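Supplementary Text 2. Reproducibility record for the structural model of the 103-residue chain.

All settings were left at their defaults, and a single model was retained for analysis rather than an ensemble. We include the record here because the model underlies the residue-level annotations in Supplementary Table 4.
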Amino acid sequence: MKITVEDGSQISEDAVKELEKHADMIECQCPNKLIDILQKVREFEEYTEECIEKYPEDRDTHKWLKSSAINIDQLLSTTIIQLARFEGFIDANNEFVDRGEGK
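Retained model, structure tokens:
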């Protein structure tokens, strides 16, 4: 599977699920912790979308919060991909390395 993310963009949910499968290839829990944070940010982004509709008087504030969540998602996505490269989960072409080839 090829990961569809470039630096500064959001990693797809399918790629996150695949990374979770590979995260056990290293002893520490850093990949899983980052993925947990990413999921929380995405939940918050969805929540702010609901607030935009539910509280029209605070629309600008919630749009700003949603935009900030998207920026955090992009930063976390890039961090997770770089960590996956460092740890050998994916190669330079953003493709998952066969589990037999990883660290």
